[in-house]
Amino acid sequence: MSDIPSIELPSALIPADGRFGSGPSKVRTESLLELGVTGSSYMGTSHRRPGVRTVVGAIRSGMRDLFRLPEDYEVVLGVGGATSFWASATFGLIEQKSQHLDFGEFSGKFAKVVAGAPHLEEPDVISSEMGTHPDPVPNPEVDLYGLTHNETTTGVMMPIVRPEADGIVAVDATSGAGGMRVDPAQFDCYYFSPQKVFGAEGGLWIALCSPAAIARIEKIHNSDRWIPGFLSLQLAVNNSRKDQTTNTPALATLFLVRAQLDAMLEVGGLDWAVDRCARSSEIVYGWAEKSDFAYPFVTDSDKRSTNVATIDFIDGVSADTIAAVLRANDIVDVEGYRKLGRNQLRIAMFPNVDPDDLVTLTEAIDYIVERI
Questions:
Q1: Between residues 5 and 86, which one has the greater pLDDT?
Q2: The domain that contains 351 carries what CATH number?
Q3: Is the C or the N end of the chain the one with fewer CB within 10 Å?
Q4: Residue 77 in contact with residue 205, Cβ under 8 Å?
């Protein structure tokens, strides 16, 4: 971007940590230091041996505690991130037909993957305007309902409620899991990547699975459907039960997830995280609602995400310019989602983000706008 105003923020307007990205998100420095202390005892060791398997086991146990899972639910891990999980689901979780709610870039991607699968029927896709979300509609032909807890691109969250219909419920919770309340009784497969709330890197997926989801995986696995080994959910289940992954994982990612879980559980678990995100969202949306030049993109306050805020700006105030000036002052990754194409900033409010830093961020934006 050319012609960026040269604005140096006063030290009082520099957050203690300038990372506000929606993914990869802020990683706790404490977690990185803890990883470094392991020296040669962890990184560079076999993922089939106790050193790493103990970490995987701790992740599975920690997720069970954090989400208060029923005893018969299982925590399954796989390599490849949520994008890989969508492919796995087309082979191993959907029998014939699925329904998808499309209200942003990521909620729509799963539907597109399913639409391209030659062994499945055309999916039932229900769309709504950006900044809103639709609701699932019971359909007797559907055997899987694909929901999204938090649409990262638009800053819309939706409650997870099981449709009054047959069919399992699979929820993409990549930017919602760990920062929003959810009742395990309302889902069968709640899956996510750890580069948002869980302060780690991508390339891993974690799925919280009900007995119905496990039964569906086993049924399809034992059918005559061809399933690539890398995408096999049954292999992922089998290996997770041994506290390992089917393929070689990123050991640093596993360690960071475990460290984040430990930190969250130590201070109050999901209740603490949800309350902290709610406080942060009140700061950001409250500022925008009082502003003369900014306002929340999501007009319905009940649908505004408590994890990712999207803030629009009036004509004549360039969000791109604001983001560029912030970046020049080491405050990074608040740019709006590129494909949404709005005059907008997108601000992460995950549990790792200090609410006080969000107060400072809003004050810094005010300072910049006064000068541009």
A1: 86
A2: 3.90.1150.10
A3: N
A4: yes
The amino acid occupying position 41 is S
Which tokens hold the place of 216? 């569906």
The amino acid that residue 240 corresponds to is S
Do 228 and 117 have their domain in common? yes
Domain end point (choices 266, 281, 304): 266
**pLDDT tens-digit readout, 220-279:** 999 999 999 999 999 999 999 999 999 999 999 999 999 999 999 999 999 999 999 999
Question: What does DSSP assign to residue 168?
Answer: E
Q: How many CB atoms lie within 10 A of CB 147?
A: 26
Q: Report the amino acid identity of residue 118.
A: P
Residue 6 lies in a domain: no
Say whether both 282 and 251 belong to one domain: no
CA-to-CA separations, 341 to 148, 162, 193, 297, 333, in angstroms, rounded: 21, 33, 25, 12, 16
- Please indicate, yes or no, if residue 281 is contained in any of the structural domains: yes
Query: Is 250 exposed, middle or buried (CB count within 10 Å of its CB: 0-12, 13-18, 19+)?
Result: middle
Token pair listed for 160 = 């997870």
Same domain, 49 and 118: yes
Strands in 344-348's sheet, in edge-to-edge order, are 294-296, 308-313, 344-348
pLDDT digits 0-9 by tens, 159-187: 999 999 999 999 999 999 999 999 999 99
CATH number for the domain spanning 184: value is 3.40.640.10
Mean pLDDT of 340-366: 97
If you search the block for the tokens 């803890």, which residue do you land on?
34
CB neighbours of residue 258 within 10 Å: 24
* DSSP calls for 314-333: -TTS-HHHHHHHHHHTT-B-
Residue 241 shares a structural domain with residue 363:
no
What the block records as the tokens of 200 is 């780690």
